[in-house]
Amino acid sequence: MQIAQILANGLVLGALYACLAVGFSLVWGVLNVINMLHGSFIILGGYLTFFAWRDFGIHPLVMLPPVALLTFAIGYAVQYGLVNKVVTAPVLTTLTLTFGLDMIIYNLMTVGFHATPVKVSLGLGSVSAFGVRMPVDRLMGMGLALLLTGALYYVMRASTIGRAIVAVRMDRAAAALMGIRVNHIYAVTFGIGALMAGLAGVIFAVIFPVTTNLSGMYLGKAFVVCVIGGLGSVPGALVGGLVLGVVESFAGHFFGPAHALTVGFLLMLALLVVKPTGLVGVKGYE
Amino acid sequence: MSAPLLELEAVTRSFGGIRAVDGVSMRLNEGEVVGLIGPNGAGKTTLVNVITGVHTATSGRVRFRGEDVTAQRPFQAARRGLCRTFQIVQPFPEMTVLDNVAAGAMFGGRIDAIGAAREAAREHLEFVGLAPLSDKPASALTLAARKRLELAKSLAMKPKVLMLDEVNAGLNSAEIDGALELIRKIAARGVTILLIEHLMKVVLSVTERVLVLHHGALIAEGEPHAMVRDEKVIEAYLGEKYAKRYREAAGV
Amino acid sequence: MMSRLGLALFAGWVVILATTPLFAENYIVRTAIMIAMYSALALSWNIIGGFTGYPSFATVAFFGVGCYVGGIAQRAGVPMALAWAIATVAVGAMAAALGAIILRLKGHYFAIGSIAIVEVCRLVISSWRSVTGGGDGLNVPLLRWHPDAVAQFFLLVMIGIMLAAFVMNALVDRHRLGFGLKCIRQNEDAADMVGVDTTRYKIVGFTLSALLCGTVGAAYASWVGYIDPTDSFQILMTVKVPVMALMGGAGTVLGPALGAAAFVILEEIFWANFLEWNRAILGAIIVALIFFLPGGLLNISWRRAARRLRGRESAEAPA
Amino acid sequence: MPTFSIRRLAPAAAFLAALQVHAVSAEDVFKIGAPLALTGGLADEGLKQQRVYRMWAERVNAAGGVSVGDRMIPVEIVEYDYQSDGPRAGQLAERLITDDRVHVIMAPFGSGHTVITATVGERYRVPTIACVASSESVFANDNRYLFGTLSPNANMTDVMTAFLQENVPDLTRVAVLGRDDVFPKSMAEATVRAAEAAGLQVVYNALYPVGTMDHSAAVSAIGASNPDWIYITGYTQDLILARRQMDDLGVTAPVVTMVTGPAYQEYTDALGSLAEGVTSSSWWHHSTTYEGVGAWPTTVSFYEDFLAVSGGVDPDYVHGSCAGALVMLEDVLARAGSLDGEAIRDALAATDVMTFYGQISFGENGMNQARDLPIIQVQDREIKVLFPPSIASADLRIVAE
């Protein structure tokens, strides 16, 4: 019985990790930019959901579209206005730029929302089947996470914007020759990355406490998931998230919670060395 | 016949299923100037990459002055005097022309002090006629000048074997004559040269022997003029139809 | 290379820093110590980040391990100076070993690998409770002198390490190693073809960039008297150091020292006057730095800044 | 070589020197230095300290100041924000002592940063009072100038173990999960020691690292060990998450204790009905009824004064302990008779006084030795005191069979 519960815990957590990381992986894979703002976008989504729920009684699910629009707009503006100007610059430049921007947004949120941990609690209780007990809000979160990741995969595969993004990822110069406005596509990609982070924030507000202190931790998780799963590909983030979730869950059980994180990190380091493109990653950028 | 300077024994290199280089065996003797020709995608550059350790041979042996160097790394090849120029030019963009060549002198040519390396570099720049541009950044050079910079850089590495990978590609006819003149001067200094080339004019006027590569395999070897008329070579370049028509025209 | 004027001004600056105890209160002396400390870290980072062009975020791992090795050695009765030496060697060995692994990666992957090193060091040290005290932190034996004397002593120590880092930078810059590292930064494949043993050079560069960070860490532990995993492995520091080097001019010899001084002074000024917003202001400075000082304070070129502002480095810019 | 721009930086250095605030040090003001975390991770706790410091200063100055020997002198609290950054806390402590000439320093929140500040205080022989540092390791390096108003953790855990053994039939199995951070870790370890000493069986004992985002593994394991008593320590966000996951995974026990969770209002606000029945031990609670010296003679007087300022938010042990420390200082100054550091230190060492916060008497290592620390439980969305009997307001409720 125990093993089923641990596996279930791992898969649910893994789906949440995937949703948290997929936007980050997209921006890194396509724009070759490490977006240090990613954690703060998640927290922003979380706070918006919490305040809407607490002050106006708006159910988190209803908050998905507004948060999506807002974070997309912010992401698009940040990329088009700032990051685009240095997107071909070396790694250190873009990473430092997004780090500086993150400090600004972090400070704004800390002053605006204060760092006290807050949380939406819907009191949906839990359900248990064949020996595994799982809270409804987490299952809902997992469902949403998989849905969003699937939707993004569909957009990337089937929509014109998606094709353009993939084209730009494969060969920027060629894409430009085909009439794709690369700067615009970059801004859209960054916007989608921010949107996915915002939506992850909405889901997380129901499951985890929301506080600016966690933005660094979410960013760290996104790094690990991307390296394990592989860059720039939506399936990569999904596989990376699920694998990390399950590994941490089993490591937490067998080696004790103290070592769960260490095992996750060592897995990342091992993959970074053996297969930097990750389990599913395709030899894209770099 | 002294031991060959460079010897390849059934060297093969495959990427996934494709055998880019397929069982090539050949020899290069001291002081020779040998041409390596073949249609695009024949595996010429891959062969050079295997010789200089950029890729390791999947099977077969590479011997340089009798020593098995199959598993060597690029910098070891450079230090052994097995030097090459790049088909797509690879300068150090922000460094001056002088320092680009000094880098060759210092590492490939094993001159320790930076000052001495720069002195040696000046000589090589004189030799290739780039001295006036010594202090300009490499990124500011024209294509022809960059090709000469590649030459100067590999000369600074005191090469025993110099593999020139389409060093004339993209040059106009006047520039080609200049390059040709330079290649003769280098050969005159006793450097063994493997010339990877498409321009038959260059191949015919400089090389003593020609190897023909097609689909990764060595399909012919011999005297330049004979090679140009060899049916198999024409078929490789121009396709089976032309080879047939040529045969009829020559009334063979 | 470095002009006479540059060297003279740097010497003047070192004299000003060293004599702060004579004309300023302890708070200013303490700021001077922080300036010297960060200059040493930025100069050390310059070897791998500036010369070789490998964006390393491992500085705080070397600093933190230096703190702990120095602190643990001192607690075991080893005299202070020897403890610092042990810390330096230990951090150097660690850098060489880890370098051999992550230096095979390039660009973003290397950056992530270096951040992973920081996290692994922090996790190992915080879970190895029996030796490092884990989450409890570690008390390091204190110098029982008069506080002013302690401040002056550590000021001179940190300035000494800064000078050592400066000399290291100058030597590497003049030596074959520096030349080879710069070739690697410009075009690693071409460097390989030209005969540079890129793997060995990168590992030597990475180790040199770690050594003095270990010394700084050990000296810092002796100065502060208490270290714990979260403060010794602060992610903020590991990003600040490259930004300081960038601000001054990464890849030059004087740049990092100048950048560190400017950054610490600005941070003090803004932090003292704009309480709640100092982090946002610092962020704004970093963003402005990216656009208006692409080459850092040492080579201010409005032309290059204008180029970047007009989007010449954007994706659609003509090649 | 590009033009060298160090000259442009020289004016910046001069400006920095001018910036430095000149404080007039006079014997007629009792100055307290307060490095506080007003921004960054510990901002919440820093703001709590700041609020009670200001409340106390206003109240005391309104009453004409504190009496030192035969004189009444005003008090001044000098605050700086160290951004929850340890090294900067030390830097500020030094500035408070050397530039602002403060007589006493109030250490910041948390054991780690307290040690850094106290180390600086010790060097300058300026007494440091820690009102939010409770692990023995902080007071373990014989710093004669460091005094803490929180009692050692062991006092709390021994008392709680005894209380629970009395009130909970066949309490035998205890599961302990602690956060690997200075204070929460020492509480978890103290509980394990107390439980073993009392003959209880420790069926689960583990620490979770800083940065843990999910407790499913630990909570499931605790469930599997079916304990009678679950004891979890951590910061508010950890405990909110742990309580949620216990409910998610159907893990419970007759007694569920979370340390310093319920003592904070954010905990009960965030969890709502889930907080029901969770017990905790704390150093102080506003429903206690002590009477003593200083600006606030009774707990109720402090509680009402606080509600007026906080707009209805209840004070927690951080407010109580820090306000209690300041009230205790009034008594110390009266006995010291002067503002000299040594005199204040000696008066502090000899302190044995009753305050609205409870008994304060410092032991050999400078920690408050007060014994009967309140045990509290959330009952019907309110905090009830179960122990000590003298101020108990309710009996223990069993959470679930």
Protein described:
The complex is a heterotetramer of chains A (286), B (252), C (319) and D (401). Chain B is built from ten helices and ten strands. With 252 residues, chain B is an alpha/beta fold. The radius of gyration of chain B is 19 Å and the shape is globular. Chain C contains 16 helices and two strands. In chain C, helix 4 (59-75) packs antiparallel against helix 5, helix 8 runs antiparallel to helix 11 (198-224) and helix 14 runs antiparallel to helix 15. Chain D has two domains: 4-151 and 286-361, 3-Layer(aba) Sandwich (Rossmann fold); 153-282 and 374-387, 3-Layer(aba) Sandwich (Rossmann fold), CATH 3.40.50. At the C-D interface, helix 1, helix 3, helix 6, helix 12 and helix 14 of C face helix 1, helix 3, helix 4 and helix 6 of D.
Keywords:
heterotetramer, A: 286 residues, mainly alpha, ABC transporter involved in vitamin B12 uptake, BtuC, 11 helices, C: 319 residues, two-stranded antiparallel ribbon, 76% helix, 1% strand
Question: How many DSSP-defined strands of chain A?
Answer: 2
Low-confidence stretches of chain A: none
- Approximate strand percentage of chain A: under 5%
Give the count of structural domains of chain A: 1
Supply the CATH architecture of chain A: Orthogonal Bundle
Oligomer: heterotetramer
* CATH fourth-tier homologous superfamily of the largest domain in chain B: P-loop containing nucleotide triphosphate hydrolases
Average predicted local confidence, pLDDT of chain A: 86
N- and C-termini, Cα separation of chain A? 45 Å
Briefly note the structural class of the backbone of chain B: alpha/beta
* Largest sheet: number of strands, sense, barrel closure of chain A: 2 strands, antiparallel
Tally of helical runs of chain B: 10
Helix content of chain B: 40-55%
- The rounded Rg of chain A comes to 18 Å
- Number of helices, counting only DSSP H or I runs of 4 residues or more of chain A: 11
Physical arrangement of strands within the biggest beta sheet of chain B: 6-7-8-3-9-10
Within the largest sheet of chain A, what's the order of strands?
Answer: 1-2
Q: What is the CATH C level class of the largest domain in chain B, in words?
A: Alpha Beta
What share of the residues of chain B does DSSP label as strand, in percent? Answer: 15-25%
Kindly, what is the distance between the CA atoms of the first and last residues of chain B, rounded to a whole number of angstroms?
Answer: 36 Å
